[in-house]
Amino acid sequence: MTREQLKERVRRLPMQPGVYMHKDKTGRVIYVGKAKLLRNRVANYFQPPERLNAKTRQLVSHIDTFDIIVTESEFEALVLENSMIKKYQPKYNILLKDDKGYPYIRLDTTQDYPRFTVVSRPEEDGARYFGPYMGRKAAFSAIDTISEALHLATCSRVFPRDIGKDRPCLNQHLGRCCAPCTGRVSAEEYRALILQAASIFEGGAKQLERELTEKMNEAAEELQFERAADLRDRLRAIQKLGTRQHVVAGAFAELDAIAFVQGQTRACVCVLHYGGGSLQSKEYTLFHLTGGDPAEVLSTFVKQYYAQRGAAPKTVLLSHEIEDADAAGEYLSSLAGRKAELAVPQRGERRVLTRLAEKNAYEEIERREKQSERRHKSLELLQSVTGMAALPLRLEAYDISNFAGQDTVGSMIVFVEGQPKKSDYRKFRIACAANGQDDYASMREMLTRRVQRYADGDEKFSPLPNAFMIDGGLGHVRICKEVLDSFGLSVPCFGMVKDDHHRTRALIAPDGREFGISATPALFALVGRMQEEVHRFAIEYNRKLGGKRVRGSTLDRIPGVGDKRRTELLKHFGSVENIRHAEENELARIVPRNTAKEIYDFFHKEG
User: Are 320 and 232 in contact (CB under 8 A)?
Assistant: First the structure.
């Protein structure tokens, strides 16, 4: 559509709340926004260019048409906007990474001996959920810490099925487990311990301390000194949790302070989580964004951030006002399941909290900008040492790996501005290796396939790098030069040469010239890091293929062992060789006893 046609469409828009979606000439959604009054909001995009900021001017230059969805309220528009952004991932919206996990701890109280597990999200299944947590590591750490304090079982045994089957594990001898496996702890007693742990997850540690203190004093008065001592030890363990309260902070954070700041080349949003009156943890998100409107950035961030977590604290403090504060507050309340406060403090203790968040955000920006500056200098050194015409902002490294001549694979890694870009990594299963091990032929095949994909217009292999970095010597880099010449391409390529101690000592060009790098620490570190990374990526893929081959030739041939049990066995024992040497009783802890016997007999018959 022309500008005039777009403006005419805008004039016919309703003065109602809703969501608008700007699209480019291909029909792709490039921006999603919400509006209290659609006509007024969308009209703002079609003002004279001098009234728009740089980002909006760029967006408008790509708008070919737009669609709208009318809603009943601004709150409905906000919820719809959030889901549309997640669905379309528009180029000009601020997008948070959706791979950030905020797991929950789950407790199924219907079991005789309940256990805590970590899950991705809560469900309507009657279980109790605690969280969200900053990540799976934090959630498991919380379980481990509280299990140690209350002497809960952490082994893989299932109760009451495994009671009395084997000797207690080492945790019982170390006094870390009440050992329900012995049968001395009833289901009711164990459930009481689990409920105490649940109370801690919900922030009730102080109340639990008071209850245990009362029970300890009662036991002492009744001359039950052994029970009193046990309660005393449990009380002390719970009190020690106070010094490690950050472990379980995610379960009952009461207040978040969020600040947005801008640096020279990037911006940062910092979130400080407070619980029990003290700072528990920090998260931050960096954007390659300058000149952005703080109100827009914070508004978008708050909605996406808490939508990903699936929960919100009682209070959220912001460093800047946002235009849709009422709707955003209603949205947070819907996530929290209670009234949530959204405020922008101007003075007092709350303003101190948002200032601290701002300070942390500035520090993250400064740290990243210094790192970026150091990486840029390393690239300048690489350009200077090798004489490349262009600054090598994009580098690709290649390596070949095989296992005893089998499962030959090739790996391609990508560094952009001195940093790994894992989304651009590629791996190759080498076909020519079926005729025997030949590193040169394998390298030729991999590079030919990579460049051919670029020549065919495959976006996954575009653009070409500023330089090809080959893990190998003169012979390997000459193979690279021959492949590039065959496609009529003129791209620098260098071999990464190691010394007798397997440390990178130099780069070598196809004409035999060597460029020493060991005397230049920054360049030595960059090249060494690339060489280690491409080798790691190749080995990882090679082991994956080898693991499949091993599994296909052994475990899959055992009756009763399918995908699920094979995975459980390998996860517990670590390798097929360890399974081979395991006793039947050890195997029975992971799989049913009849299957354990099949596995044991299989390996013993195999010798």
Answer: no
* C-alpha distances out from residue 118 to 56, 104, 121, 131, 201, Å: 43, 6, 9, 10, 13
Q: What single-letter DSSP state applies at residue 258? A: E
In the predicted model, is pLDDT for residue 300 greater than 50?
A: yes
Note the pLDDT tens digit of each residue in 16-63.
999 999 999 999 999 999 998 999 999 999 888 888 877 788 889 999
Beta strands in 313-393 (DSSP E): 315-318, 341-343
Which one-letter DSSP state was computed for residue 489?
A: -
Of the listed ranges 6-10, 392-396, 452-456, 461-465, the least confidently predicted one is 6-10
Strands (DSSP E) along 300-370, which ranges?
315-318, 341-343
Other Cβ atoms closer than 10 A to 354: 22
CA 427 – CA 400 distance, rounded (Å)? 10
Question: Which residues, 6 or more positions from 435, have their beta carbon under 8 angstroms from its beta carbon?
Answer: none
What distances in angstroms separate CA 117 from CA 105, 120, 328, one per listed residue?
6, 10, 32
Please report the sign of the dihedral spanned by the C-alpha atoms of residue 438, residue 430, residue 416, residue 284: negative
Q: Which of 63-72, 207-216, 573-582 has the highest mean pLDDT?
A: 63-72
Residues 6+ positions from 344 with CB-CB distance below 8 Å: 317, 318, 319, 320, 321, 325, 354
Asked whether the beta carbons of 65 and 95 are under 8 A apart, the reply is no
Beta carbons of 361 and 497 less than 8 angstroms apart: no
The rounded distance, in Å, linking the Cα atoms of 279 and 541 is 42
Rounded to 10 degrees, the C-alpha dihedral 411/416/420/423 comes to: -70
Sheet holding 315-318, edge to edge: 278-287, 267-275, 255-262, 315-318, 341-343
Asked which of 27-41, 117-131, 480-494 is least confident by mean pLDDT, the reply is 117-131
CA distance 417 to 373: 10
Count CB neighbours of 551 within 10 A.
17
pLDDT at 244: 45
In whole angstroms, what is the distance from residue 166 CA to residue 447 CA? 56
d(CA 16, CA 35): 8
CB 599 within 8 A of CB 558: yes
Q: pLDDT tens digits, residue range 194-252?
A: 888 887 777 666 677 777 788 888 888 888 887 788 778 777 766 665 544 444 444 44
Band of the pLDDT at 568, cuts 50, 70, 90? confident
Q: Per-residue pLDDT for 547 more than 70?
A: no
CA distances from 316 to 34, 256, 292, 303, 542 (A): 22, 5, 22, 12, 48
Instruction: Copy the structure tokens of residue 422.
Output: 């894992």
Confidence of residue 166 (pLDDT cuts 50, 70, 90): confident
Tell me the Ramachandran region of residue 581: left when phi exceeds 0, alpha when psi lies from -120 to 50, beta otherwise. alpha
491: tokens are 């791209």
Structural contact between residues 279 and 272, judged by C-beta atoms closer than 8 angstroms: yes
